[in-house]
């Protein structure tokens, strides 16, 4: 009885889909499709417009719902109307529904091996047409969507990505799913779906987990980062939940007023699926973020306060004691400054959402920064640099002072190129990373340091909470999204490369004279004192470092008629602890230069 009830529900779903999408119905093949026979099974094949036999194409398989047909699915999805990049196949189920992997339905009881049938379809198309290597995709509606999840679980080595529409996930498959390798998955569901409910349901024969549980399960199987991005799209009618492991994505689009249907008034499902497939290699970015092309790489840029005129304020992050260095440190400062200024935070390659590279250093970033600003059409700038980012800021000025109108600099705890300071900077751990980098990179690739990185992130989050307090401007979601990128193996390796290059960065920095042509203000905290107290055996050297830093910072500011601002009992992460101090120093520079 339960099987019959479920069958009737899914047949009703197929009929409802026909009504809601206005597809008509019937089993006759659309004019632009070819019926292909495989023994007693079949599929419809649609070639791209202007198909050329010598050209390689992507392959997309689209699966109809229970009680539907391949012709129904073609009319409903009509993928070829949106793109000429794909050969599209619409397979026909061997019975009323697909063997979706729950071991509970008619197809399973009849022993129909739909996974093997899909293998045959792919092989048949591969024998007839030229396919791009590694570019096979699947999409499914309703019960066909449940089967598409079965493909993700049991054919992850064949499919680069799959898309599931109007189907959460069977409880049985949720428990048994074990992909051989990560696979990208997109889900789109109406929150008012009553056929295969968005929030799932409990049943002894065929239970469903919720859509959010399903996408979280695939994210976990992909070893995705723990925090999902949450965005509201399409005039607040679509909610997006997006997980990523740095390579594969698991995304759920929840349509607020959507029911059991393929197409939605605020969501063109076919177009969205193809866009998802097209953008698998691009990270899902938080609000106000973008990627800027720098050579053959892309750098992450966050822009706030775009409406303000005058020079752009450019924030460059430096490292904390864990050498974590990205725009998370500006999750409070940037919104504060954006109330008055046009503000960019720019992540170096290998940090934040920027792409990775084997050649990473503060010297490299000075060059990349110039290219990024050119791409952003920003010629007049004020640089705010934290800690070791002073190296990039100084090199940028040396190399680009004729190409850019660099109005001023504000340095927060800058590296100082004095003898004792250099001996501290170039000692442990920088010297260790330089000596051991070749062996360290493959060691990091095993994930050996991921847990310790996670522990450091937890400690940093707690520390940041203490520094920020209840400041309402703090963007914790952005802070956490950027911070968790540090867990990625690629980013762990990138950090190692940067630390190994740090000594050479300092040599290039020390070879340059002190800035004199533009105003330079320096905020000098007493963060060194914590290291002096924690390392009594090195207290003398560290105290000399602190003294030289104070002297150099004061001289740099006085030489350029900037401000020297000394702070006691202050944290190195001043942008989180005292953003108002940084803003006041920036206001002073703008006032001195009479900048808008």
Automatic annotation (TrEMBL):
PROSITE patterns: PROKAR_LIPOPROTEIN. Keywords: Carbohydrate metabolism, Hydrolase, Polysaccharide degradation, Secreted, Signal, Xylan degradation. InterPro entries: AB_hydrolase_1, AB_hydrolase_fold, Esterase-like, FaeB/C/D. One of its GO terms (molecular function) is feruloyl esterase activity. It is found in: Secreted. Residues 1-17 form the signal peptide. Residues 313-582 form the AB hydrolase-1 domain. Coiled coil: none annotated. GO terms for biological process: xylan catabolic process. GO terms for cellular component: extracellular region. It holds the Pfam family Esterase. It comes from the Bacteria. Its main location: secreted. This is Poly(3-hydroxybutyrate) depolymerase.
């Amino acid at each position: 009885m339960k099987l019959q009830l479920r069958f009737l529900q899914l047949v009703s779903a197929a009929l409802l889909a026909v009504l809601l999408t206005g597809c008509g119905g019937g089993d006759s093949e659309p004019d632009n499709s070819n019926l292909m026979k495989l023994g007693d099974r079949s599929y419809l094949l649609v070639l791209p417009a202007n198909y050329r036999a010598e050209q390689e194409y992507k392959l997309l398989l689209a699966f109809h719902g229970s009680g539907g047909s391949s012709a129904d699915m073609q009319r409903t999805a009509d993928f070829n109307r949106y793109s000429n990049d794909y050969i599209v196949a619409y397979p026909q189920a061997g019975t009323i529904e697909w063997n979706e992997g729950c071991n509970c339905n008619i197809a399973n009881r009849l022993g129909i091996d739909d996974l093997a049938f899909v293998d045959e379809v792919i092989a048949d198309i591969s024998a007839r047409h030229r396919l791009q290597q590694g570019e096979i995709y699947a999409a499914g509606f309703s019960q066909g969507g449940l089967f598409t999840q079965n493909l993700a679980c049991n054919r992850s080595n064949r499919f680069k990505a799959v898309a599931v529409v109007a189907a959460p996930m069977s409880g049985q498959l949720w428990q048994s799913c074990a992909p051989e390798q990560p696979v990208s998955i997109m889900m789109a569901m109406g929150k008012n779906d009553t056929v295969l409910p968005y929030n799932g349901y409990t049943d002894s024969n065929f239970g469903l987990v919720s859509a959010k549980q399903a996408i979280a399960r695939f994210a976990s199987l992909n070893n995705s980062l723990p925090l999902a991005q949450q965005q509201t799209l399409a005039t607040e009618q679509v909610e997006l939940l997006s997980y990523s492991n740095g390579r594969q994505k698991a995304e759920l689009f929840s349509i607020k007023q959507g029911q059991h249907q393929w197409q939605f008034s605020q969501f063109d499902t076919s177009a969205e699926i193809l866009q998802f497939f097209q953008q698998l290699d691009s990270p899902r970015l938080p609000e106000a973020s973008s990627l800027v092309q720098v050579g053959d790489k892309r750098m992450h840029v966050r822009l706030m306060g775009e409406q303000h005129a005058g020079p752009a304020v450019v924030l460059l992050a430096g490292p904390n004691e864990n050498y974590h260095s990205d725009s998370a440190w500006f999750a409070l400062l940037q919104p504060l400054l954006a109330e008055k200024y046009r503000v960019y935070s720019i992540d170096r390659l290998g940090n934040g959402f920027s792409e990775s590279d084997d050649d990473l250093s503060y010297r490299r970033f000075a060059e990349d920064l110039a290219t990024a600003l050119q791409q952003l059409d920003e010629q007049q700038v004020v640089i705010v640099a934290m800690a070791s980012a002073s190296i990039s800021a100084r090199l940028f000025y040396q190399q680009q002072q004729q190409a850019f109108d660099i109005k001023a600099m504000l340095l927060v705890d800058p590296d100082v190129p004095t003898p004792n300071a250099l001996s501290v900077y170039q000692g442990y751990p920088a010297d260790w990373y330089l000596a051991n980098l070749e062996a360290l990179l493959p060691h990091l690739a095993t994930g050996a340091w991921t847990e310790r990185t996670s522990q450091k992130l937890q400690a940093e989050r707690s520390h940041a909470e203490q520094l920020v307090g209840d400041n309402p401007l703090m963007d914790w979601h952005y802070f956490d999204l950027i911070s968790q990128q540090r867990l990625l193996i690629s980013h762990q390796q990138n950090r190692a490369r940067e630390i190994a290059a740090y000594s050479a960065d300092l040599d290039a920095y020390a070879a340059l004279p002190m800035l004199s042509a533009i105003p330079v203000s320096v905020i000098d905290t007493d963060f060194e004192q914590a290291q002096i107290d924690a390392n009594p055996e090195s207290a003398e050297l560290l105290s000399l470092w602190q003294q030289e830093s104070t002297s150099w910072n004061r001289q740099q500011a006085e030489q350029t008629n900037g401000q020297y601002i000394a702070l006691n009992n202050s944290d190195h992460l001043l942008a989180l602890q005292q953003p108002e101090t940084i803003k006041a120093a920036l206001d002073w520079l703008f006032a001195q230069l009479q900048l808008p």
